[in-house]
Design brief:
With 442 residues, the protein is an alpha+beta fold. The protein is built from six helices and 14 strands. The two termini are 30 Å apart.
């Protein structure tokens, strides 16, 4: 099923498709199922019968227009709620990402101090062994007892004294580094506990946001199922030409055939991209294109890759790399957690590698967003997808080069492009070197 998100319009407060229970400022948000209230739609017989009497006709026109407006309102309400809950998910996931980064940093610092402590301890052991070889436990007595002249005796005593002082300093440094390592490990353990809490909350928020996104699809499906017929019925009532149900059915058959043809062509383009990736895989070389601006690829082909099972997720070259920058939309100086590619509007976005689709929906400033879990702590994400551009569903297994979405400019975006992210154990990582290490040039 093609996932669709409506274009945003002024939001009128109508929440017929959702029910919400919000518990506490940071509590769990529970999204109920769509309200089970079936709409009543006029039949063609009702419409044709109403044409015979002006009052009946006007009443039928008012009813049909009300139904059409109601479908639009329901879709807008579902979209607005999905965006609100997508913002909640984004904030929770951001907190979890920061906690993961802190825990990893503390672990790395603890390991560094522990390694230094081990090296210092080994050095102290070597000094102790050297002193022992010079006279056993009582080094000073051994030196004094030897038949040496005064100058040699003083030299040896001074050397042993310095050796002893050095051993003490090294041993003290080893003890200090070991203490710091233990402290950092304890902090990392506490950070890991907090990370577990935040990751659980982010998962819950993601599930709620996903249900809201699914409700957008439900509202869209209902609108698409009935709106064309309602428009045709309204035209029959307001124009001089009478349109029959048979004529409408014939027109719908033509329209659906055109949609199916477009879907087949899109699938063929995705298959061609996957075939190009497979050919590149068998050839063992990257076909990501010549280096372009910002160290990226100059118009690299979507789906092109190497023998690693990874492919290029979109076309174009890098226009904004990973790292801190002034956000062109918000004006804030912040970490840009991915790489932007100059992919054109509604061009294909394909899975960078095989995996399971984890989220399909709104995600804060990223707009429409897809995230794929590749296993082993590796995830990729694709942002600013065009409204109506989802081509994957949650839980779906996808292969490298498989079409998952279409490029757009939703969320905090100044124009069509693909925002591509790589997450390693919950921490955003620079996609350019990550993909390069897998034989793919961005």
């Amino acid at each position: 099923m093609t996932r669709i998100a409506s274009h945003r319009r002024p939001f009128r407060m109508r929440l017929a498709v959702t029910g919400l229970v919000v518990a506490g400022l940071l509590g769990t948000v529970v999204l109920d199922a769509p309200t089970a209230q079936a709409k009543s739609y006029p039949s063609w017989e009702d419409v044709l019968a109403a044409r015979g009497k002006e009052s009946d006709k006007q009443q039928q026109i008012t009813e049909i227009r009300g139904i059409i407006d109601g479908l639009s309102d329901d879709l807008e309400a579902a979209q607005a709620e999905a965006e609100r809950l997508g913002e909640d998910f984004f904030r929770a996931q951001t907190a979890a990402n920061r906690a993961a980064e802190k825990e990893q940093r503390l672990r790395a610092d603890a390991e560094e101090h522990a390694e230094t402590a081990e090296q210092s301890a080994a050095q102290a052991g070597q000094l102790a062994a050297q002193m022992a070889r010079s006279g056993g436990a009582d080094v000073t007595a051994s030196v004094v007892g030897n038949d040496q002249d005064a100058s040699d005796l003083l030299y040896n005593l001074g050397a042993l004294s310095k050796l002893s002082e050095q051993a003490e300093r090294v041993e003290a440094a080893a003890s200090a580094d070991a203490s710091v390592a233990r402290s950092l490990t304890a902090q990392a353990d506490r950070a890991a506990e907090r990370l577990d809490e935040l990751a659980t909350e982010a998962q819950e928020r993601m599930e709620v946001a996903q249900r809201a996104s699914d409700q957008v699809q439900t509202a869209y499906d209902e609108q698409q199922e009935h709106k064309a017929r309602l428009d045709a019925q309204l035209a029959t009532l307001t124009s001089g030409r009478v349109r029959s149900e048979k004529e409408f059915a014939q027109g719908e058959a033509v329209r659906k055939a055109a949609e199916e043809k477009a879907a087949r062509e899109a699938a063929a383009r995705a298959a061609a991209a996957a075939a190009a990736a497979a050919a590149a895989n068998s050839g063992g070389g990257s076909s990501g294109g010549a280096p372009g601006p910002s160290g990226g690829s100059s118009g690299g082909a979507v789906g092109s890759g190497s023998g690693t099972g990874w492919v290029r997720p979109g076309g174009g070259y890098v226009i904004s790399p990973f790292g801190y920058r002034v956000n062109p939309y918000t004006g804030a100086y912040a970490l840009h957690q991915g790489t932007d590619l100059t992919s054109g509007c509604s061009t294909p976005i394909v899975a960078a590698a095989g995996g399971t689709v984890e989220y399909v929906g709104w995600y804060g400033g990223y707009g429409n967003y897809v995230r794929i879990d590749h296993g082993g702590g590796v995830k990729t994400a694709y942002g600013h997808i065009v409204n109506g551009g989802f081509r994957a569903t949650v839980g779906q297994r996808v292969s490298a080069g498989q079409l998952v979405a279409l490029v757009g400019s939703t969320g905090n975006s100044t124009g069509c492009h693909l925002h591509f992210e790589v997450h390693l154990n919950g921490v955003p990582s620079d996609p350019v070197p990550f993909m390069r290490a897998r034989g793919v040039s961005l």
